[in-house]
Amino acid sequence: MSTNHTHQNKSRAWTMLLLAGAFEIGYALSVAGSHAFTRLNWSIAAGVFFLLTLYALSVALKTIDVGIGYAAWAGMGSVGATVFGSVLLDQPLPLVRALWLAVIIAGVVWLKLADSAQLQAARGQAPA
């Protein structure tokens, strides 16, 4: 398999992982809005987002290592749900929590960088 084709596969996988993260945020917010699945529209939205996030995550994990992919997905979901929960659901976001969210964001960025073909090539590893 060519390096360019591998790079395209990794890019598509990370795009799917970003999409899975967005769907995870939608799922978390829908679950909160469903009030323990007692509101039909929010409950249906939660079910749809749940299926979408699992599908997109499963596609991404065909290429990205499960440890890296799952950690990035969970981080995106956590940060997104907290930020959007603060904006849309009027949930508190104190400075200390915001700082720890920044740590999660930095970790997700480093996971992406650690999975990059350039970094693996610099280490002498063959990109997956």
From TrEMBL:
It is found in: Cell membrane. It comes from the Bacteria. The chain crosses the membrane at residues 12-30, 42-61, 68-89, 95-113. Keywords: Cell membrane, Membrane, Transmembrane, Transmembrane helix, Transport. Pfam families: Multi_Drug_Res. SUPFAM superfamilies: Multidrug resistance efflux transporter EmrE. InterPro entries: EmrE-like, Small_drug/metabolite_transptr, Small_multidrug_res. It is a multi-pass membrane protein. The keyword Protease does not apply. Gene3D superfamilies: 1.10.3730.20. Its main location: membrane. Belongs to the drug/metabolite transporter (DMT) superfamily. Small multidrug resistance (SMR) (TC 2.A.7.1) family. Gdx/SugE subfamily. This is Guanidinium exporter.
